[in-house]
Amino acid sequence: MIVLHDILAFLVTLGILVTIHEFGHYIVARWCGVKVLRFSLGMGKVVYSRRFGKDQTEWAISILPLGGYVKMLDAREMGAENIAASELPREFCQQSVWKRIAIVSAGPIANFLLAIFLYTILFVHGVPEPVAKLRVIPDTSIAYQAGLRYGDLITTVNGEQVQGWTEFRWKMMQAGVAGANSVLEVQRFDDAIQGGTKHISISVPLKQFNAKDVDSDILNYLGLNLARSREVVLKRFLPESPALRAGLQEGDRILEVGQKPLLDVIDFIQVVNANPAKPLKLLVQRKQEKFEIEVTPASQDANGKTVGVLGVELQAALPEMVMVQANPLQAFVKSVEKTWDTSIFSLKMIGKMLTGNASLKHITGPLTIADYAGQTSRSGLITYLGFIAVISISLGVMNLLPIPVLDGGHLLYYSLEVLIGKPLQDRYVEMGQRIGVFLLLMMMAIAFFNDIVRLIPYFGRLMS
């Protein structure tokens, strides 16, 4: 059922993105007076079609769902001799170079507009985000050496306000890829001063960050993690588990281990895992009563390492949340900025991959997109719409790359035509098409390889 759900979510995502992209080409072609013969959702053999309008444009669904196209009246495909003289003014190649540029660029622009529209809706509605508050920071980490501490609340990055954890991570990733240091404004609790909090400016060095490490997350590179709820609450027990035998009950709160206060659920799990077959003294709160219990974690093998386990499920360690929201005008401006920033970041990453400064593992294909589509759709409509916006931006950026057979390749031809005052010779165009097909096949091969490597654990879970 999960696989079917993921496939359906992927097809819905792809259908929306391809329809919007191709409709951009279609509507601008119509505005420019070009006759549109077919609008196809999907590639290959047409399985269903209907004709509408004065031009009897064929609206079709084709057998291969990966893509789509708008077929216009084009002498390069049909031959000028096969086009009626009355129709020639509406033929694509008869249009000015500026009209052809507008028609070709309309597809990627439509994807960017879709992202702006979706982000505007999300920001007006409100997006729940974890607060940008820091968890335990290892004293050997870059972040700790820079001066960040447990419980710090990030308020700005390089002078730009941060409303949530995702926005904080995004701004840090942008700075890391650019190789620039980040200046963070943090709010820190201090009971020694009036009001209990103070504001501190901290410079975090990022110049040594290698963009190849983006896969591992720049915040992990710095030693930063999201703060979680400090409550450690026991839920369901396994039969004959060490926790049950020790007398612990559902709903018990663990306050301390060995007279050391716990920071959160992760802290408790780490302590238990580090002490297989060793007795631990717990301070427990049960309703209004507090008392101590001694429990000995059982030993269990995990990836070749012996760890301690108590055989009890813990209540999810949820972070403190904030609703990121804006009025319509602010939401629109923020959406434009986010779409622009994401596009520029994507281009920078592509540039770094071409120069060998970033890993080719960042290239993903339909399998990974289908996996993410399924995950985000299960998380709710807000998360799913955000995912569609991100993929729409990626589709727009990819299609603008100056690779023949993509929209960007055609724009390259037309830009050269503007510069030299005449269209490129057919042999140069044909040579470019061959190069473009080769490059696309190479990218697809890398994408599928990365997909398979990335999703091996996913398929393993399905088979287990």
Automatic annotation (TrEMBL):
| Transmembrane segments annotated in the record for this chain | 7-28, 101-124, 381-401, 435-456
Task: Give the GO biological process terms.
Answer: proteolysis
Species, as recorded: Undibacterium pigrum
Its Enzyme Commission number(s) read: 3.4.24.-
Q: Give membrane topology per the record.
A: Multi-pass membrane protein
State the family it belongs to: Belongs to the peptidase M50B family.
Name the enzyme group at the top EC level. hydrolase
Q: Please identify the protein, giving its name as recorded.
A: Zinc metalloprotease
